[in-house]
Q: What sequence folds into this?
């Protein structure tokens, strides 16, 4: 059973596991439904559970870990209302969550790890390496507490915050089950996107689960030379292998893959790269989401010039590729991955 500090990690338990746990304490099954419903509302203490007898609350407080993330910083964009949270976890670590307001509903971008070990050369999240994996319950709380604090009902989730979701596979899968529970928050898999830098060994396992989520692959370069330079995850795996796994994923799930592609000046935005990218994604009828690179102080890359961006898009369109350019939300609140945690936590040292 999942534990934190030798106590049962109650927020990470699925309804059947929670029922079994409560049964082992001699409790009837309706108690488990009541407690699950509290936990899925964003709950930080057993004392909040007003319909649970005091004696049981005391017993649970002794044997279970229950903690509510605390807001360290909250920034609200004056431009588009994007909200960026920096949460303090039970052990003093911090992660970021962003709430974005789109016409099709509010979307929350959540972190899956404290830090990241993948080392992408343009990304702020990975600068200090990986500190630890998040538990499923902690990932769940990012959604629940952002919703509670902001008062904005969340309809979509993207796993595109700090961390590599496939490096924390079991907890991320457990989180997906938890958020999808009909007894709880019940967010449909079709409203969830998972983004990976391409941990190919895990992609088959993900395909096997045959979920309706959208898989986003952070490609950023279509050739091995460039990709291995800016994304260490490509070394020893390679773009051919990545596309093989993407094809297998599409075959198995029938879900089209979305490729994320950051346009970096003089690195990923050449005519040859636009042509190669088109050839590679064409066979998968995939979608390409172009991201104008966000400036990160510690990194030396610059976004492509408007003229080069335009040229790149025109080549993809001429080749019949389904392409969009990501709208930049929250540019005034450090909303790109890892920047707020880094600035705030560095300042504390
Ligand atoms: N580890 C996962 C998910 C987290 S990153 C992954 O790699 O997909 C979410 C997205 O933001 C990824 O596509 C990542 O490559 C991109 N990203 C990171 N830093 C960026 C920056 N400075 N500018 C633009 N995109 C960036």
A:
């Amino acid at each position: 059973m999942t534990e934190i500090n030798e106590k049962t990690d109650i927020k990470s338990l699925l309804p059947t596991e929670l029922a079994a746990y409560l049964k082992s304490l001699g409790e009837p099954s309706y108690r488990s439904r009541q407690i699950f419903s509290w936990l899925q509302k964003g709950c930080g203490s057993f004392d909040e559970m007003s319909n649970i007898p005091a004696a049981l609350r005391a017993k649970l407080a002794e044997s279970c870990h229950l903690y509510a993330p605390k807001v360290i910083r909250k920034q609200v964009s004056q431009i588009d209302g994007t909200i960026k949270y920096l949460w303090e976890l039970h052990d003093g670590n911090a992660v970021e969550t962003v709430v974005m307001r789109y016409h099709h509903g509010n979307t929350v971008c959540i972190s899956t790890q404290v830090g990241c070990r993948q080392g992408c050369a343009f990304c702020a999240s990975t600068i200090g390496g990986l500190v630890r994996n998040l538990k499923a319950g902690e990932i769940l709380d990012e959604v629940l507490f952002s919703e509670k604090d902001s008062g904005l009902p969340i309809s979509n989730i993207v796993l595109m915050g700090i961390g590599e979701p496939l490096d924390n596979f079991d907890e991320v899968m457990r989180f997906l089950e938890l958020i999808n529970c009909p007894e709880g928050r019940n967010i449909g898999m079709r409203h969830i996107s998972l983004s990976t830098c391409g941990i190919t060994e895990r992609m088959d396992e993900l395909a096997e689960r045959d979920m309706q989520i959208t898989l986003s692959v952070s490609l950023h370069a279509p050739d091995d030379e460039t990709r291995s330079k800016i994304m260490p995850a490509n070394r020893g795996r390679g773009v051919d292998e990545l596309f093989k796994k993407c094809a297998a994923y599409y075959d198995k799930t029938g879900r089209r893959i979305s490729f994320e592609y950051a346009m970096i000046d003089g690195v990923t935005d050449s005519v040859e790269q636009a042509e190669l990218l088109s050839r590679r994604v064409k066979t998968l009828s995939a979608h390409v989401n172009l991201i104008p690179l966000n400036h990160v102080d510690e990194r030396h890359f610059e976004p492509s010039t408007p003229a080069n961006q335009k040229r790149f898009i025109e080549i993809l369109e001429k080749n019949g590729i389904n392409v969009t350019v990501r709208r930049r939300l929250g540019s005034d609140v450090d909303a790109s991955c890892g920047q707020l945690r880094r600035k705030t936590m560095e300042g504390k040292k």
Remarks:
- The two ends are 35 Å apart (CA to CA).
- The chain has a mean pLDDT of 93.
- The first strand starts at residue 3 and ends at 4.
